[in-house]
Amino acid sequence: MTSSPVLLVVAAALVDAAGRVLVQQRPEGRAMAGLWEFPGGKVEPGETPEAALVRELAEELGIAVAPGDCRPLTFASAGLDRAHLLLLLYTIDHWQGTPAAIEAAGMAWHRPAALRGLAMPPADVPLVEALVAQLGDDPAA
Ligand SMILES: Nc1nc2c([nH]c(=O)n2[C@H]2C[C@H](O)[C@@H](COP(=O)(O)OP(=O)(O)OP(=O)(O)O)O2)c(=O)[nH]1
User: Fold this and answer.
1) How big is the chain by its Cα radius of gyration, in Å?
2) CA–centroid distance, residue 41 to ligand 1 (Å)
3) Region for residue 121 given its phi and psi (left: phi exceeds 0; alpha: psi -120 to 50; beta: otherwise)
4) The whole model's pTM is what?
5) Domain boundaries, the chain
6) 17 CA distance to ligand 1 centroid (A)?
7) Domain 6-135 indexed as CATH 3.90.79.10
8) Nearest CA to ligand 1 atom 21
9) What ipTM was estimated for this complex?
10) Furthest-apart CA pair in the chain: how many Å?
11) Is 10 a pocket residue for ligand 1 (Cβ < 6 Å)?
12) Which segments constitute the Nudix hydrolase domain (predicted)?
């Protein structure tokens, strides 16, 4: 039986007042460059998932989020090249500051159903469906 290390990653669906969700584009030089993803990143040793998410959102988007405003939605469990990805997805609808693409190649706001048309990592496909189920599926709204 083979085993691979579990990579624990947290990510956020930031939801604005119109029910749109923020996605960002992975920059050149990183794994999966060019794909759209939810902002977030790896949980460091000794960090809680919520603390890691708060840190990543400050680093990547320049926004301040309270740990208590990170609401668990669902998770993905998927094989990567050298690890097994466990990705915890949270929804967040309160933050301070205006999100900016500090590290990403770009960012965009979309209704959940419109995310189906974006090139995203394979693990994100079921996450998008969970968002559509939670937030609604009208791509034009
Ligand atoms: N942030 C994020 N990562 C995702 C998503 N979907 C998905 O498969 N991943 C994968 C890509 C990477 O293998 C991993 C996240 O690692 P990362 O390299 O972006 O994390 P990080 O910001 O901590 O980066 P670094 O410090 O190692 O540079 O999770 C997603 O929607 N958001």
Assistant:
1) 14
2) 5
3) beta
4) 0.95
5) 6-135
6) 26
7) yes
8) 41
9) 0.93
10) 48
11) no
12) 5-133
